[in-house]
Design goal:
Blueprint (H helix, E strand, L loop, with lengths): L5 H22 L9 E8 L20 H8 L5 E9 L6 E3 L6 E3 L4 E6 L2 E5 L4 E3 L5 E3 L6 E2 L2 E2 L8 E2 L4 E4 L2 E5 L2 E4 L5 E3 L5 E3 L6 E3 L5 E3 L1 E3 L5 H36 L5
Helix pairs in contact: 1-3
Length: 262
C-alpha cells in the first residue's frame, strides 16, 4: 500500500513539469523568434531485484523468483520526464518594413557577442548604436564574418544570403549558424541560446535565407497550449485525488488493524 502511493505521485510530478513548460510557452506567445518547448515522458520500470542479496531468491527458498517478486512490493512502475524538446518549426512572418528587422526563413541562428561570450538567437529585431554598430535590443553586437557589423547611418540592404550592402558595396555578411544537435542549445535569457557542445557541431550556413523588413513571430500555438494546459491540470487533479484516497486507506488500515475489540 505504501509503495502504491508513489505511482500517482510520479504522475503528478510529471504533470507539474508540463504545466511549467506550457506556462512558459504562453508567456512567450509574442516573443520574436521564440520556439516553444514540449515535454516527453518515459516509463520508469520496476526494479524488483534491487533489494535482494545474492543469490536471488535466497538459497533456502524452494520457489521460483517469479513467485517471490509479487510479494516484495517493488513491482510498481512509475512515469518520469524523459526530456524537454524544442519545437523548431518556422514561426509566422511579421512584416515591419523596418530595415533593421531581419528574419531567418530557414534553419539557423544569428550569432551575438555578449560579455559572457558568444550567444545565438532567432530574434532579428536589431538597432544601431551611436557608432553605427548593428546591435540587439539588449545592446549586444551582431556578428558578421568580419566581426562586429558597422553600417553608417544611411540606408543599407541585406539580401537573402545575409550579405549587407551599402551604397552598392558589400560591407559584411551575417554569421548564421546551425547545429547538429539543437538540444545542445541552452536558453540563457534575453531570448539567447548558449551552445556548450562540441565546436565541430556548430556550422556556419553558407546559403542562408534572410528577409529584411520582417520578423519571425513566436511559433507557440495559443489554442493548442491552452487546451493542453486544461487537460494537464485535470490530470494533475486526478493524481491528487488518487494520492488522497491512498492516504485515507492507509490511515484507516493502521487505525483498524491496531484496534482491540472485547
Amino acid at each position: 500500500m505504501v509503495k502504491s502511493i508513489y505511482t500517482p505521485l510520479s504522475g503528478a510530478l510529471a504533470q507539474e513539469k508540463v504545466l511549467e513548460i506550457l506556462a512558459n510557452n504562453l508567456a512567450n506567445m509574442n516573443t520574436t523568434g521564440f520556439k516553444g518547448d514540449q515535454v516527453t515522458f518515459k516509463l520508469l520500470e520496476a526494479e524488483p531485484n534491487k533489494n535482494y542479496h545474492d543469490p536471488l531468491p535466497p538459497a533456502n527458498y524452494k520457489i521460483s523468483l517469479d513467485d517471490v517478486m509479487p510479494l516484495h512490493g517493488n513491482e510498481n512502475a512509475y512515469v518520469g520526464v524523459s526530456g524537454v524538446s524544442r519545437d523548431l518549426s518556422q514561426g509566422p512572418a511579421v512584416q515591419t518594413n523596418n530595415p533593421l528587422d531581419l528574419m531567418i526563413e530557414s534553419d539557423g541562428y544569428f550569432q551575438i557577442q555578449t560579455p559572457e561570450g558568444t550567444r545565438y538567437t532567432r530574434n532579428g529585431s536589431f538597432s544601431l548604436s551611436s557608432d553605427g554598430a548593428l546591435m540587439t535590443k539588449a545592446g549586444h553586437p551582431v556578428l558578421g564574418e568580419k566581426g562586429d557589423i558597422f553600417v553608417r547611418s544611411g540606408a543599407f540592404q541585406v539580401n537573402h544570403l545575409g550579405e549587407i550592402y551599402q551604397d552598392g558595396e558589400l560591407i559584411d555578411r551575417l554569421s548564421i549558424y546551425k547545429f547538429d544537435k539543437d538540444e545542445s542549445l541552452e536558453r540563457v535569457g534575453d531570448n539567447y541560446f548558449f551552445f556548450g557542445g562540441d565546436p565541430s557541431e556548430a556550422k556556419r550556413i553558407a546559403m542562408p535565407s534572410v528577409s529584411q523588413g520582417s520578423l519571425e513571430g513566436s511559433n507557440v500555438n495559443a489554442i493548442k497550449n491552452l487546451t493542453a494546459m486544461i487537460l494537464t491540470h485535470r490530470s494533475y487533479e486526478a493524481y491528487q485525488k488518487a494520492i488522497s484516497n491512498y492516504d485515507q486507506m492507509m490511515e484507516k488500515s493502521s487505525n483498524t488493524i491496531g484496534e482491540v475489540r472485547a
